[in-house]
């Protein structure tokens, strides 16, 4: 994905925000606070100056329902509707395409390599291939509605969390290679939460990454994806609604039901597998300012800033070291999505166009017989490293996958 840069200043880091209502186009020139004006799906503003970058209009996004696809498109699950809106990043007008789904989308994510899209619809996970629009798999291992989905940074695995208290780790290789008529087996099923899972986050490292999960059971947990082992469980005084890790994975940030944000040190000594977060003793590690549950958290690439979104209809930008709130942006509705990214080049260049337009996405499961009968001259896609189950990387760097 090409990243935009301005002069000698380097890449531009932006905040992408969506609310369940009208959205502003940014904090305004003042940079400290703003009242919403205009309507749209989401707004994009530059982190350093607060200047508005873009506004994408048309519908409201569902929680955990906004994702960037391949640095060229923005996808947003429409709140309460059985469709996903798609915008070309350089076009700041009404959405250009709607992806019709079998039901309302509870959560949505795209693979970092831009090849696949995952959607949580009721208790099922739907997997589409971006290049062809084929629906490749429908996974039914959860017993209640999905709440969150996330890929590992190399796109080799993905994780799903649901209201059934389970977090499931899936190997993309295993899902794509399953025999026709059979259900793929997940790599791990984590059942240590006692109430619905509200959020999850994957660190860096592909299948060797660590993953953080949050739950209404007042805990946040840290896991190792490769082994499935539980590394840490932290107990809080309130339910945890959102969780994220900084890029170096020194800290885990947890958003509470009461509006507090807790900073958990992952490198503290001595190491404890289970510990409680004592608010009175760790007051210097709490961000205070939100008046309602914190639904979204994201850390800047340099690890110095924290972005938070809340049901109090505000987004706040914090200095992590001092815990000071640097900027507050007001919206006309609860914040459903908020994250920090390095702005793709297409977002800042109005003359750019996607290399390949999005296809029409199928609502029906693609038959594996059609794939088996594909011509051998089809296009072979690289799915990235670490695709094979069990960590054997040799001879599994590329998975031949033919587009009919």
UniProtKB/TrEMBL annotation:
GO terms for cellular component: dynein axonemal particle; nuclear pre-replicative complex; nucleolus; rixosome complex. It holds the Pfam family WD40. Its main location: other. GO terms for biological process: DNA-templated DNA replication; rRNA processing. The keyword Nucleus applies. Keywords: Cytoplasm, Developmental protein, Nucleus, Repeat, WD repeat. InterPro entries: Quinoprotein_ADH-like_sf (IPR011047), WD40/YVTN_repeat-like_dom_sf (IPR015943), WD40_PAC1 (IPR020472), WD40_repeat_CS (IPR019775), WD40_rpt (IPR001680), WDR18/Ipi3/RID3 (IPR045227). It is found in: Dynein axonemal particle; Nucleus, Nucleolus; Nucleus, Nucleoplasm. Coiled coil: none annotated. WD repeats lie at residues 139-172, 287-328. SMART domains: WD40. Belongs to the WD repeat IPI3/WDR18 family. This is WD repeat-containing protein 18. It comes from Naja naja (Indian cobra). The lineage of its organism: Eukaryota, Metazoa, Chordata, Craniata, Vertebrata. The gene is WDR18.
